[in-house]
Each structure stands twice: as C-alpha cells, then as structure tokens.
C-alpha cells in the first residue's frame, strides 16, 4: 500500500492551485503572472520565483544523496511540519505522536489542525523508548515525530531504532525524523533508510550548520508520492528569490568546506564548555551531539536571570517534561563561550 493512502482523502483528491510559474517560465515576453514589467531600481525582483527551483532542488538532492523527486524545499522545517500535519491529519479524528521533551512545533501544528497529540515520553536518560512508543500507537495516529539530535536534550536516536519504528508502522503511519542538527552529530542519517522505507520522511534545514537561519530554507526528503502530496497544499511561491540565491551560494563546494570547518570548531567548543560546566557543584551537563548543551543547575530560573543581567541570553527549558532547572545553551564563538563561563564562574565565587 502506498503511504499516502493514509493521508486525508480530500487532500489526495485535491486539484492543487497552478501558479503562473508552474505553467511556464523563461519566455522572452512574460505576460502570464500579472507582474509589473519594471523591476525596482537595482533589483530583478519583479518576477515571481520558481516554486521549486531546479538548481536548488538538485543541490539538495546531491547534498543528501537522494533523487530530486524526493525533495521538497520550503520555509524551514516549520513549514514542513505544518504541511505534513495538514496533509495527513483530519481535524478532530487523527493524531500525531511526539516524544517529550522535544521540539514544541510538532504539538503546536497538530493542535492548530485540531489533531490529537499522543505523548510518549523519553526515558529517564532521554532516550527513545521504542517499545513504549509502538505499544501506544493507535490506528488514528498518522504521524510519528522523532527529533534526532533531539531538541532540547541534544542526544541522537540510533538509526536502527528509527528503522524498527518504521518497520513496525509500515502502511500505518509516516515516521518523520527531524535532523535539523545532524551535521553536528557525526552519526548516520535516517536518509539512508528512505530507499527501503516509504513511510519515512526526513527534515533537514540550512538554518543551523549552514548559518542561514535568516533565509528560512529547509527541505523534506521523502518518497516521491509524499512530496507530490505536500506540493498540493504548499503556497504557490514559498521561496523568495534572494533566499534561493543565497542558498545556492552556501551549497557550493567552497562554502561547504567552510561549513564543515565551522562545525568542527563548534564540536570542539561544545566539549570544552561541557567539561567546564560539569565541574561546577550541583550542575549536570547532558550528553549532546547538537550545537547546544542542556544543563541542569541547582536553580535554573535564577541562573537564567543572572545570565540575562550579564547580557547573556540562554534558553530556559525548565517547563519541558523532565527538565526542571534546565537551561539550553547554544555553543557560540570561542569568545562568547569564554564570556559565559567567566560569568558563571564569577557567580559561583560570589555565592
């Protein structure tokens, strides 16, 4: 059975909007999109962009070792999550599964769609409990979101566990693996499962390791039928032309080499910061393979406020399940990390 058979029937039968750029582009005289014929001074932005520009699709396909028909580019991973929920979950009837503590947008998008959110908590060590997850999946559950490396704890899910979940849920649910931080992990990607498991989708983004958070560009990697389904409900022109151009630039070989060098530096700094913080009394640093660490302090909220008073902004994740008194700390440049460590050391001495 095709995995899209579990999607909403009204989406499967929907006649998608056909934009002017989908119909034709590149003519000598372009009179099909109601555009102004004159661009603003110093730009060439009076024309609508290609909804899925082939050069960028090809670049993503090459980067992640998939075929172009397995790629859908969109406005970061957030749009991909929203599209998946809207395509597969019928309001009031269907559900998604999440494994807290994890990225909050999975549940937000589900609730906006009025889909039920089934929570299967991670273990005490914040690992995926495969047995508990599989036993909790009801027939109404259409999507299973797995974040690897997980945000906000920073640990990765072994590919073997992801494959076990997908195998058990074949023809029942789409397993969505969010790999926003995978470049920092140095571990195998779930993309290696796409060819043999039609019920897996992988989310990747240029926001993290590639340094393009401001462009809002990411992609879904999945079976071609899933990609085609999502295109039916995606906005006609999801990618701004300047963002397309910037993305193509950072995916060139020289920029990729620079990215890998920066990732290596972040990983070294991650180890240095984690080691320094682990020595503080009453402080626990959770193992992380992302570009952040999750740290439990004796008093997380007070530590957060103290750092803020020193113009250092971290993320208070104490409201997440199992993360009381925890702060998520992004790994910055060496000088920024030095400033963080110095501030915490001075607070410890003053205590």
Describe the protein in words:
With 351 residues, this protein is α/β, with parallel strands linked by helices. It has two domains: 3-251, Type I PLP-dependent aspartate aminotransferase-like (Major domain) (Aspartate Aminotransferase, domain 2), CATH 3.40.640.10; 259-350, Aspartate Aminotransferase, domain 1 (Alpha-Beta Complex), CATH 3.90.1150.10. Helices cover 37% and strands 14% of the residues. The protein has helices spanning 9-12, 20-23, 54-64, 76-88, 105-112, 130-136, 159-168, 224-233, 241-250, 253-278, 300-309, 334-350; strands at residues 71-74, 95-98, 116-119, 141-147, 174-178, 200-205, 218-221, 284-285, 292-296, 315-316, 326-330. The chain starts with 8 loop residues before the first helix and ends with a helix.
Question: Can you give me a brief rundown of this structure?
Answer:
With 351 residues, this protein is α/β, with parallel strands linked by helices. It is 37% helix and 14% strand.
Radius of gyration: 22 Å
Our count of helices gives: 12
Q: Examine the coordinates and then state which fold CATH places here, giving the name of the CATH topology of the largest domain.
A: Aspartate Aminotransferase, domain 2
What share of residues are in beta strands?
Answer: 5-15%
What can be said about the biggest beta sheet? Answer: 7 strands, mixed
How many structural domains in the coordinates? 2
Order of helices and strands: HHHEHEHEHEHEEEHHHEEHEEH
Q: Major sheet: order of its strands?
A: 1-7-6-5-4-2-3
According to CATH, what is the class of the largest domain?
Alpha Beta
Helix content: 25-40%
Any low-confidence stretches, pLDDT <50, length ≥5?
none
Please count the beta strands (DSSP E, at least 2 residues each).
Answer: 11
Name the CATH homologous superfamily of the largest domain.
Type I PLP-dependent aspartate aminotransferase-like (Major domain)
Shape: globular
Q: How many angstroms does the end-to-end distance come to?
A: 63 Å
